[in-house]
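Issue: ligand-bound run for adenosine-5'-triphosphate - logging full I/O for the record.

Environment: standard queue, default settings, no custom constraints.

Inputs:
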Amino acid sequence: MSTHPLISGLNEKQANAVSADDRPMLVLAGAGSGKTRVLVHRIAWLIQERRYSPYSILAVTFTNKAASEMRGRVEQLLGSSVRNMWIGTFHGLAHRLLRAHYMDVGLPQNFQILDSDDQQRLVKRLIKSMNLDEKRWPAKQAQWYINGKKDEGLRAQHIETFDPTEQTLKQIYEAYQESCDRAGLVDFAELLLRAHELLRDNKTVREHYQKRFRHILVDEFQDTNSIQYAWIRLLSGQDNIVTIVGDDDQSIYGWRGARVENIQQFLDDYPAAITIRLEQNYRSTGNILRAANSVIANNAERLGKDLWTDGNEGEPISLYAAFNEMDEARYIVGRIEEWRDQGNALQDVALLYRSNAQSRVLEEALLHARLPYRIYGGLRFFERQEIKDALAYLRLVSNRDDDAAIERVINTPTRGIGNRTLDIIRQTAREQKKSLWQAAAQLVDEKQLAGRARNAVASFIELINTIDDETEDFTLGRLSNEVISRSGLLAMYEAEKGEKAETRVENLKELVSACENFTQDESEEDLTPLNAFLAHAALEAGEEQADEYQDAVQLMTLHSAKGLEFPMVFMTGVEEGVFPSQQSMDEPGRLEEERRLCYVGMTRAMQKLVITYAEQRRIYGQDFFHKVSRFISEMPADALHEVRLQTQVQKPTSYGRFNTGASHEAFEQTGFSLGQRVRHAKFGDGTVLNYEGTGPQSRIQINFDQVGTKWLVVAYAKLEAS
Ligand code: ATP
Ligand code: MG
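Outputs:
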């Protein structure tokens, strides 16, 4: 093996991939085998050894976080900056292309990104204004349709259909697109589609980038969709070298249009491509890897890979059967406290769950135990109601024609612009093909609104215009401060009572500091600071959080854990109906995708993996009794260790849900004590493990020798000491 510093820390296959000649390459390999590492080293190799300028390299990653890590690692390897290298997500790169060529694609210079929530509002409003029944035509469904078509590269006019339902959806798509174009708004799917059209239809632009990007490298390739792949095809002309790395077993975005078939397609489209397979896993212990391999082996459609590790077996995977979701959270908190008390960092712990809604109970338990945590995804800072309100004002300051922003705040805080007035404005806008702002201004000028409504609309227009005029040379921080106070948002939330309102006020103030601390990327010099900030808020929401440097437990969905690794991982809610999700259970294809998600989750763990499930779970106010997930039965039994509760009971954790309000003495008054042997008429003999509540409602948990653990109400259980 070579001793070149960029290669010395790699195995032979990795080294071959890093130093391969200029030809297309596929690195196909399982989790933790060093694919991302290979990509990073290859970029450094190309720059240092092959003398490519960073300017001529394009790297695509799955999240903004991954992109900035990748840039950092390349710079670390090279010991110099690679500022002019393009690296980012498909969406981020598309945004950059559109900014550079806004005129070519027919966008105003200050075009704004419409996030998914605002998109849905806009669609909803259009459905209403088209006099369609909102029950029959839910906005969410229409939104899904529009984005799906865009992901396939289809404009409304390309859709030919005789199906009456689809004809209506197509009309909604048309109206929606018109409205976006008028307002200078671009949704996430549109970013990709428009950038694609730019490259496809504009030869000069296309050739410019083909000339520039000698090397194109894509991580997590298995989750590219049609339009993203089409993009890569367009960017790579005759002589561009494309390197893709991926793992078909980790394709988890099929539900959002990702096509794992793109891997095969790549091999067809680039017949000269070499394929390199990496088989050694450097991330996880033997037990974790064996269990993950054994789960994924149940999928039928696989390209097939073997993964091995020469690391140690490690400890078995812990499996904990919780009584309910709160017990699950309590157990997890106990394990995290133990981990911390052994001198480990909290940021080395990840809590993974199938859906965002599951985080709340975990969050509460962590709060209670005073364990700092950070959430990736979910309701991110920039997605919170009050923040979106403030951002809408900022967007209007930048661009009056932003219909989605007007819809959001024209009457927030309430200023006497009711639905009737709004409907008149909407209708005028629609009939005259104007933005809502223009329509409103016209109605005011032509005195076509009733007196009070007219005054209200006029003063809203005045408000935005004044803020814009008077803040021209303000810093972003001062501007946002003006906006939250003069709009009345701050006063509105200050007047509300309760903890939630307090949080909202805090968040608004946090927004001002976010603005103050915002530094514009050098690649964004073409944008005003305000527009750079707005794009940042829309694109990077949640991936970076305020207290980035605090040591904190990391919470995220299984989906957003892709590509990451942690010494300790909790995979929670592993129950039939939760994971695999209810909707996936009847469809073999979707079930396989859930299984890949399980594989992704397990392979995030380096040393410790803890899997938990709850016998009873409350979801949206309803109690469910789920069976343990099939995925657990697909793991080899000898890699698992079922946790017994007794050890937990003797050492109550600070999140004492089961001990709050029930002192030890009060419990002993029931005549039972922890660890005591008891007999139940139906369930037989067992041991007392835990208790909860006081008085007639107090409940007791017993591990029955025959039937396992159960919670019983003491007053009804008719237990006898045995
Ligand atoms: P995933 O499929 O989850 O994205 P991956 O294939 O991209 O995983 P990496 O994240 O690149 O894997 O690597 C996994 C871990 O193994 C990292 O901590 C990486 O530094 C380490 N690693 C990779 N190759 C080697 C090697 N040759 N020697 C030592 N450690 C390595
Ligand atoms: Mg990776």
